[in-house]
# Entry
Amino acid sequence: MTNKEPVAVVGIGQTKHVAARRDVSIAGLVREAARAALADAELTWADIDAVVIGKAPDFFEGVMMPELYLADALGAVGKPMLRVHTAGSVGGSTALVASNLVAGRVHGTVLTLAFEKQSESNAMWGLSLPVPFQQPLLAGAGGFFAPHVRAYMRRTGAPDHVGSLVAYKDRRNALKNPYAHLHEHDITLEKVQASPMLWDPVRYSETCPSSDGACAMVLTDRAGAARSPRPPAWMLGGAMRSEPTLFAGKDFVSPQAGKDCAADVYRQAGIADPRREIDAVEMYVPFSWYEPMWLENLGFAAEGEGWKLTESGVTELDGDLPVNMSGGVLSTNPIGASGMIRFAEAALQVRGQAGEHQVEGARKVLGHAYGGGSQFFSMWLVGAEPPTH
Amino acid sequence: MRPPIRDIAVVAFAQSDHLRTTDEMSEVEMLMPVLHEVLAATGLKTADIGFTCSGSSDYLAGRAFSFTMALDGVGAWPPISESHVEMDGAWALYEAWTKLLTGEADTALVYSYGKSSPGSVRDVLTRQLDPYYVAPLWPDAVALAALQAQSLIDAGETDESALAGVAARSRAAAADNPHAQLRGADVPHGDYVVNPLRTGDCPPIGDGAAAVILAAGDRARELCERPAWIRGIDHRIEAHSLGVRDLTDSPSTRLAAERAGVFERPVDTAELHAPFTSQEVVLRKALRLGEDVTVNPSGGALAANPMMAAGLIRIGEAAARIHRGESRRALGHATSGPCLQQNLVAVLEASEEASEGENR
# Structure
């Protein structure tokens, strides 16, 4: 039985993402994104019924349960405030938890926000606290994911240069996005390919930066959408799926949880053929090779064929299925916010508000996030028209 | 608050024995028996559950992404629809409730756990405070609660002997609770920890876990003879800075209670998450609880206060009384943050009070 209230995105705000925002506190950072989202929706703090906030581990800033301290900065005093934490997928999950408040008719208008201020501490150390009887983290996330990239290359016969193509594309896309962290004006494919090898086959220029940043969205019901000054983005489907980190049957190249999550979103949205019916994708690609891998996992390409889409230019900004028009996680990575940025950028596209990196005529766009050791997935599909299912 | 668009009930509850130390157990080992028990109560298996949500804290575990290990223990294969809040499990229950409201799931498993024993939880909790202006001073959790207690005494709302009475009543009630950590009427009230709070005014420090199963409509009736229907649930937060709050009052609790429908009809039972005796005084006032209401028959947080689970346990204990036929309308409360900064209130009712059908 579902009798959900339709959910619309009517406000989106981001900070300019940079390596270190030394000019603002954590509270100042999140408030900047929240105010931008409210301004976009032409709403005030008083219009917000509840706040749902997400970020990745508390050790990244060294503040335990920071929603307590941030209640004032986010206008949450006297309101409900929820704090979501689902590892790297958290930005997406946070938006989905907020959407449930509207869909379940608990609240009419909800502010959702995700952030990371990585300059407050050191993410590498935040992820490396020793725990007895558990495997040590393998020299950062890249060390964990590189063997799975290698497995993908072996399995599919993908040539070595595909990863560099993704990085070169995403960094060029980022030049069109004023909020992106990395603006490498002199980027060339040769420079990407000449960058140092970090975790073979992942090169320096094929990895994400560490960013400070926040992203916020205002979600509302049908009545709220009717009052929206700008075109709303309508949520057509949203889902989360999780599977264990380590077990004998796990396919790290194409995890079942990712496939199931996408299938659930497509079911809700009535999508039968994602490759034909979805216009663009904001995909969580922290290491370049994950673009072809996720293209397969999300059903845009047959197994073993994802790299061919990338290589043929289909995922370029002017391609048939643009991926990471904003520059993606490869260009901007405030970890806890990265998933929400994917979701928000998808919404910007269907609202026609993505500026220089707008895909002409984008009507249905997928936002995707994952986290842990490819353990947590969250996705939503947004459209320019309200849901009919 | 608009009435919920679906009837949702707590259909099962389980908790660990709460212990001062559990050095021999990992968090997952502490949690697993509780998960098995709550699933066994309904006959459900992990794969039957529509949505799973947990609450815990990386800071207690001392490592990032600590909840991922617990998820492995749940057995998330085939993959499950799952989420996590870095909050007390009561808020995980709230998230699960909203998920069931959307109709995308009919059952939910909610669990939470915390081990306070590996470190000094008094000190760890200082890391919750404003990181620039307050946390560097390391004001610990008991000191902040003592500030609140002294405010109450200064305002003439209680005195030290009344607070001692709260402690004695709670621990006497816990004599019947096999899971409680501190129980029996002979628990000494002890010396001052931070004036005016004595040992007895403070919660025991301990480790524990809890789990609840929620179900909607007819599914709840199939799974439980006397479902505890969630008639309303709401939570509110206050300003963080103690300097701008009236510590003798809890407007967030009062507002959450209003929105949850507490004041529409009297409750017979209230399970309050009041880790300090003085906080029960504040909560009783905000919730307008009279002497006729049975408060914390489990012993409450003064008998066992496993961080991140103690709030979920209050809702579980309230529901369990309805399951056993000992209550018809019960209140469950959870708190988070210094001096009751954030509060959640749920109203649970027995089936006799339930409206017919799933859609109202």
